[in-house]
Amino acid sequence: MGKYLQHMIPVHSPKELLDFAKRNAKRINGFLLSGGSTLEGRVPLEKYAEAVRYIIENYGLRVNVHTGLIDERDLQYLRRMRPSHISFDVVGSDDTIHEVFGLRNGAQDYFHALELLDASGLEYSPHLIIGLHFGELRGEKKVIDFIATLHNFSNLVLLVLIPTKGTPMENVVVREEDAMEVARYAAENIESARITLGCMRPRNMHKLEKLAVDLNFRGIVLPSLHTLKYATEKGVPMIKKEMCCVF
Predict the structure, then answer these.
(1) Nearest to 2 by CA among 134, 123, 101
(2) Band of pLDDT at residue 3, cut at 50, 70 and 90
(3) How far apart, in whole angstroms, are the C-alpha atoms of residue 61 and residue 28?
(4) Considering the chain, what percentage of its residues have pLDDT values greater than 90?
(5) How many Cβ atoms from other residues are within 10 Å of residue 183's Cβ?
(6) pLDDT digits over 188-228, tens only?
(7) Confidence of residue 22 (pLDDT cuts 50, 70, 90)
(8) Crossing angle of helices 49-59/14-24, nearest 10°?
(9) Residue 212 falls within a domain, yes or no?
(10) Which candidate, 186, 156, 161, places its Cα nearest to that of 175?
């Protein structure tokens, strides 16, 4: 994941974050606040709590935060922060957590964090990466089953592992049929209007995009021209939004 952080704008203090927001307030709608995680799987954002709240209240920007794993203590700073949205990556396989993330946690830790978010009154969206276990399906349906028991999430964001050059997974391939199987399963168990096909996915999965149209997903991030044409021909009403898919 560090490969993707390299392309983000770095800030090292609340002051730097405030300066960034002030400089760009008239040019952007909002931003994602993320970062590398600790050995416990947390993204250390607590020191930015007051800065994020100030930015939202004074500059009118939407701030989406990646928290990583959370517990009851983290909810205290998140309630002070009051981010516009929380994006939370969920993993349903202990093996994936150990072998891919290198963490000692288990799937139950992620499910517990979801329960905390669901009861918190904060806006949040679970994110599920299909094929995260070296291209294999491992725990994705378990995650969907658990999310189906929750009540207050905004939408489930489905992502697909991208084989990224320079990483141990650069030659990994996720079968489009597997991604479509998970998408169908999600639509069978969760209202389609609460499911989004997110930005992180291989761009050649046109059948998956068309399936998202057929299943009446809430949205598709950066759909291909083929998919736009397909949706238009089907008479699907479309609204273009230039912001993160969770909003």
Answers:
(1) 101
(2) low
(3) 8
(4) 92
(5) 24
(6) 999 999 999 999 999 999 999 999 999 999 999 999 999 99
(7) very high
(8) 20
(9) yes
(10) 161
Contact 149, 189 (CB under 8 A): no
H or E stretch including 89? strand 85-90
**Considering the domain boundaries, does residue 36 fall inside one?**
no
Q: How far apart are CA 104 and CA 123, in angstroms?
A: 28
- Buried b / exposed e over 49-88, threshold 16 CB at 10 Å, is bebbeebbeebebbbbbbbbbbeeebbebbeebebbbbbb
pTM for the whole thing?
0.95
The answer to whether residue 44 is domain-embedded is no
- 172 within domain boundaries: yes
Residues 65, 52 contacting (CB under 8 angstroms): yes
Per the CB < 8 A criterion, the answer to whether 190 and 156 are in contact is yes
- Count the domains in the chain: 1
**How far lies 75's CA from each of 45, 72, 117, 143, 192, in Å?**
12, 5, 8, 22, 29
Distance, CA of 217 to CA of 219 (rounded, Å): 5
In terms of residue numbers, what domain contains 97? 92-103+133-230
pLDDT tens by residue, 50-64:
999 999 999 999 999
The confidence score (pLDDT) of residue 156 equals: 98
64 to each of 74, 235, 237, 245, how far by Cα in Å?
A: 16, 32, 26, 10
